[in-house]
Hints:
With 68 residues, the protein is of the alpha+beta class. It has one helix spanning 11-20; strands spanning 22-28, 37-44, 48-52, 54-55, 60-61. The chain is built from one helix and five strands.
Amino acid sequence: MTQNEAPRLSRIQRLRLKLFQITPTEKKTRPGWRGFLQFYAFECPEHDIVEDYFHGYRKVPRVSGNTP
């Protein structure tokens, strides 16, 4: 998946996204990480449906390039 590509969601995940505004997608790892993190799909007003993991102590998902 590229930066601008929407995540592929199952019907159940799409339903969860509509009901709860967020849904777990899959566990992933990145170069330099020691383990896996759960990624989530959520709707961004600027970028439509995006996928990311929770950041920091407040566990906030955010879109790359956007900071709280």
